[in-house]
């Protein structure tokens, strides 16, 4: 008994019971299990090479329900995912439970810095914020036929200021941040662009009843978003975006990839805005022409707001999933110095990758 109570005696006894090779195989299996849990939590749950896989991915992350998670729930989710990443199987949880915790993290923490974002800076907040702004536009209309472009100038300036403030906060949260001067410049430029676009278009359409002026908020929002994104990511455009291989090894910085990423994000924001800015005016005008609101004119504003919310709920992930988040780019499309670096790699890849951003 004394021999088996010390480590040396226990090892000798274990070697008799379990052959050395079997023990080595068991240890190797345990090490591999720690390295490779049930699935790789750092890879997207759905196939990102097709549109529907990307849509499912973003729909889970961007759902407004994630905004109601408390700090305790957010940090608990982060702790669970970190445990799983380190090899803990979390046997009390199903795969769906673990993926739900991962979606919770992705909805609230900056993917580049790991910092928790303020609620108004999360992309899931776009729906309630925009509904509040659209509700403000509708509440102050004098009648069912008046549009935002024909409401009072001070009120337009106020709402554009609110909208662009929210956009600036979101853009700052979804990037690595920036200097105070960069954030301030982006804020001033985007607000001026938004207000200037709306006021300019209002002046153009001041004496017309044309149906076309109903689409002008789309162009105003596009100009303002383009300005804000470009200024906020000016450092990236100047220095380049990180380029990495399929096994996540960074090769260098590419300005070409940065330009592509920024243009893709601007296109995605445009796609988010399009359904409500194009389809909704057409639908409301059709209902109005059929006399749907003749006896109940106040119903128009309520219906407009409800339809806006439903459409925007699906339009946000729709815009995000137009392009893969980790986007491939041909090595031959990069700068010559990067092409040289890639050619020196063992088995030079024909495609490398960059993060386009949100």
UniProtKB/TrEMBL annotation:
One BP annotation, GO: serine import into mitochondrion
InterPro entries named among the record's database cross-references: Mtc
GO CC annotation: mitochondrial inner membrane
Major site of localization recorded for this protein: mitochondrion
Membrane-related topology note: Multi-pass membrane protein
Subcellular location: Mitochondrion membrane
Keywords: Amino-acid transport, Membrane, Mitochondrion, Transmembrane, Transmembrane helix, Transport
Keyword DNA repair in annotation: no
Transmembrane segments: 299-316
Example of a GO MF term: monoatomic ion transmembrane transporter activity
Family stated for the protein in its record: Belongs to the sideroflexin family.
Protein's recorded name: Sidoreflexin
Species of provenance: Allacma fusca
């Amino acid at each position: 008994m004394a021999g088996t109570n010390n480590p040396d005696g226990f090892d000798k006894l274990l070697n008799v019971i379990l052959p050395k090779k079997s023990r080595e195989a068991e240890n190797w299996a345990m090490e591999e299990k720690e390295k490779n849990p049930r699935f790789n939590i750092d890879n997207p749950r759905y196939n990102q090479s097709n549109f529907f896989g990307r849509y499912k991915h973003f729909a889970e992350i961007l759902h407004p329900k994630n905004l109601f998670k408390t700090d305790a729930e957010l940090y608990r989710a982060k702790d669970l995912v970190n445990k799983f990443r380190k090899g803990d199987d979390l046997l009390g949880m199903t795969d769906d439970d673990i993926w739900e915790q991962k979606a919770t993290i992705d909805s609230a923490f900056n993917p580049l810095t790991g910092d928790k974002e303020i609620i108004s800076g999360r992309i899931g907040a776009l729906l309630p914020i925009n509904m509040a702004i659209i509700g403000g536009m509708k509440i102050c209309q004098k009648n069912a036929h008046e549009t935002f472009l024909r409401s009072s100038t001070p009120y337009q300036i106020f709402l554009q200021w609110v909208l662009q403030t929210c956009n600036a906060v979101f853009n700052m949260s979804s990037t690595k941040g920036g200097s105070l001067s960069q954030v301030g410049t982006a804020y001033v430029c985007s607000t001026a662009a938004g207000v200037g676009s709306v006021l300019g278009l209002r002046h153009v359409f001041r004496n017309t009843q044309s149906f076309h002026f109903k689409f002008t908020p789309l162009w105003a929002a596009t100009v303002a978003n383009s300005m804000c994104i470009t200024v906020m990511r000016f450092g990236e455009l100047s220095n380049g975006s990180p380029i990495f291989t399929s096994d996540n090894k960074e090769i260098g910085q590419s300005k070409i990839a940065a330009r592509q990423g920024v243009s893709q994000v601007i296109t995605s924001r445009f796609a988010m805005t399009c359904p409500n800015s194009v389809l909704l005016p057409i639908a409301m005008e059709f209902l109005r022409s059929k006399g749907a609101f003749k006896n109940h004119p106040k119903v128009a504003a309520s219906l407009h707001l409800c339809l806006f919310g439903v459409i925007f709920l699906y339009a946000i992930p729709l815009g995000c999933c137009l392009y893969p988040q980790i986007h491939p780019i041909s090595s031959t499309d990069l700068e010559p110095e990067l092409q040289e670096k890639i050619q020196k790699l063992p088995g030079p890849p024909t495609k490398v990758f960059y993060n386009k951003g949100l």
